[in-house]
């Protein structure tokens, strides 16, 4: 976390509340470092915000009174559209004929599936309806559906049946989506069923990729986390180098051994 210039107590509390309702709050010690005040000052801020009904206290920090609502896949499809297309193109460029791929649910991985429609000699298994629909009529793709319990919001399959199917398969590459990424914690999802499945998906592939646009870097919208094996790769967009919070996350990830690929934007057409 990068520290902020010294500010007044009211503005500090407003920023703490904003963090809680957007990216999620860090620990008291991290907030203390961020705002350049003592931990006791942060605790007083949290106590006041709680007394005013603006936050709910948790062990070591606080959270918004209403949980972050999980956006539906339909809501997310138009979010950061150009960034997702760039990420999808960069991910598709890594794929070679003859490979066995595992695709997660989600809009960014769905964009990757669209890029793979013209591929040749691929075997693709997926836990997501978006990728399944994109590749149903792709002539060069042998398609497998990893079924299970369908989560309507994400349009992805989870649960024991999906896990049992994956235990019998291995893959050259897996491409995962996420709701947030935090160094040291992993990738964030709305519930434990999703994170359990993503961890299993990562264990079944030789190469692990997470597709996430810049606004997801450093975010902690939920409290369920998937830990990934060492040596995984993040594919993100150019805004990750321009936003301070995202750039800081990228720096920490690289220091921790994560490879970060920044997908170039599409070239502008001539007037």
Automatic annotation (TrEMBL):
User: Which keywords accompany this UniProt record?
Assistant: Transcription, Transcription regulation
Q: Name one Pfam family in it.
A: HTH_DeoR
Q: Which GO terms describe its molecular function?
A: DNA-binding transcription factor activity
Q: What PROSITE patterns does the record point to?
A: HTH_DEOR_2
**Boundaries of every HTH deoR-type domain copy:** 9-64
Q: What is this protein called?
A: DeoR/GlpR transcriptional regulator
Species per Swiss-Prot/TrEMBL record = Streptomyces coryli
């Amino acid at each position: 976390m990068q520290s902020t210039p010294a500010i007044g107590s009211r503005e500090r509390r407003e920023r703490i509340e904003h963090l809680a309702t957007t990216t999620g709050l860090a620990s008291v010690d991290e907030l203390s470092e961020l705002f350049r005040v003592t931990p006791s000052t942060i605790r007083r801020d949290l106590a006041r915000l709680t007394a005013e009904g603006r936050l709910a206290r948790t062990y070591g920090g606080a959270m918004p009174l209403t949980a972050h609502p999980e956006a539906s896949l339909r809501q997310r499809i138009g979010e950061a559209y150009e960034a997702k297309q760039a990420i999808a193109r960069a991910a598709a460029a890594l794929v070679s004929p003859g490979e066995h791929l595992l695709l997660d649910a989600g809009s960014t991985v769905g964009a990757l599936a669209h890029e793979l429609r013209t591929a040749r000699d691929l075997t693709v298994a997926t836990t997501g309806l978006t990728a399944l629909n994109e590749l149903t009529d792709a002539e060069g793709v042998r398609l497998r559906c990893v079924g299970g319990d369908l989560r309507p919001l994400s349009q992805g399959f989870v649960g024991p049946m999906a896990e049992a199917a994956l235990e019998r398969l291995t893959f050259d590459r897996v491409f995962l989506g996420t709701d947030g990424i935090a160094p040291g914690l992993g990738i964030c999802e709305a519930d434990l069923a999703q994170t359990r499945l993503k961890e299993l998906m990562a264990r079944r592939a030789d190469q692990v990729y997470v597709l996430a646009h810049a606004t997801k870097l450093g975010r902690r919208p939920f409290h369920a986390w998937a830990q990934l094996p060492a040596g995984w790769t993040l594919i993100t967009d150019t805004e990750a180098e321009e936003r301070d919070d995202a750039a800081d996350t990228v720096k920490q990830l690289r220091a921790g051994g994560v490879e970060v690929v920044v997908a170039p934007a599409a070239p502008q057409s001539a007037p």
